[in-house]
Amino acid sequence: MTGKSKNRPFSSLVVDGNEKAAARAMLYAVGFTEEDFGKSQVGIASTWSNLTPCNVHINELADSAALGADEAGGKSVTFNTITVSDGISMGSPGMRYSLVSREVIADSIETVVCAEGFDGFVAIGGCDKNMPGCAMAMARINRPSVFVYGGTIQPGKDRRDIVSVFEAVGKHAAGAISDIELRDIEATSIPGPGSCGGMYTANTMASAIEALGLSLPNSSAQEAVSQNKRLDSYAAGEAVVRLIERGIKPSDILSVEAFENAITTVIALEGSTNAVLHLLAIAHAAGIPLSIDDFSRIGMRVPVLADMRPAGQYAMSELIEIGGIQPLMKDLLAEGLLHGDCLTVTGKTLAENLSEVKPYPEDQKVIRPMTDPVKKDSHLVILRGNIATEGSVAKITGHEGLKFTGTARCFHGEEAALAAILDGTVVEGDVVVVRYEGPRGGPGMREMLSPTSAINGRGLSDKVALITDGRFSGGSHGFVIGHITPEAFEGGTIALIEDGDHITIDADEKAINVNVDTAELDRRRASWQQPAPYATRGLLAKYAKLVSSASEGAVTG
Question: Catalytic site residue 378?
């Protein structure tokens, strides 16, 4: 065994030849046989952890993927990377690490795959940042690979989910529910393993990655605790071995058209604003030119069709019951809204994958027909104006209206804003301005699920707007605008807004402005001083120095 092999272009450099005897000796100790050294090595990147329900079962899926790779003629090697829980850290200082973890996950998968010379790999993700982190690694490393989504959680009591708990906190503060009722909701909303159950960030990104062509058909629409999800994992292990044999890499799959497919699918599903940030980051890793303006361009012609939480009625488990996202994608393809000739990890094109997909049942109500959409164009609206000269991202579903004018009420950080919402300081007509939460200023763009849920819980969802240089959980809804760029820490206009300023948000005009003249803004800018950084050493400090703006995907390399 000497030299590079077609099916072992990387592992042969690690284990072939007399000079690699020491490497083989160490691998014998972890279970390799002599025969294994002649096989393609397949890494299984597992994000297993028992710190969150999203990932608590992923070790079992990793075992299934490894078995699939082994029985297809490869040699699997399983390794772990990290996860953090957005739902647990939400509203706390720990949430600063959430977006940062996306970079750590991508870096760690790259580190292991490239250091160990794997010929291909399976990446399995559960919680929100696992998915884009895995996809970024796939694009960056560019070796045959397949993504597996850990799967969605089953509904809790009375169809509850994690957002039910966050909104119950607001209802409790408003006196609408008792301590006992709050505790019941807390204890019965999360029944077991799986990612948050609406079209929140996890399910959004799983769907986007499937539309990109990086996961097997229907991987995005399976419950975490199901035989289908175990079979999906097994099939992913098999698929990677075939991709290695055929030499199909992410660079053969990821194209401008593939990203347009992902954006289109996210819009039709009324997906999370985080999809903007993460698709920009994956495209950056793949070397594909993608900008926030592409979301506006595509959004003009793509309707919102899914009546799903948080703004709508249905959970992911109910979409799974009627067939997942595949029938939706087939309808979008038939309407000329998807590029059917894009290659996928099946080795077939998207159109070929969809050719045998059956339509949704006639009586289903989860996905609307093209003739009766939830919204005729995208809910993801890129707004610009003197507050966001480089862009911002709004989630305008139509439920909350298309225009809001109100009075600024400004807060340095999420905690101060949440306290003011819960104690009744924030009232109808306010525009809550939460700043110094951007990629550098936070650092890490904390998600504002606690404040937005408190607003909704207090019955103010259509009476109060919230704008921030941070971002939003996929569970947020209401008149909310995030990713404001330039961020406050960089001296963006959001740092200059004062209590009492009038702010206008217009989704039709795609504009967000503070009604203060340029001369006054220049005067305020001249006296503005950058605050001290949140962290001066360690991971957060390193991230703040390296990270790009939100309009560029908040990437570090």
Answer: no
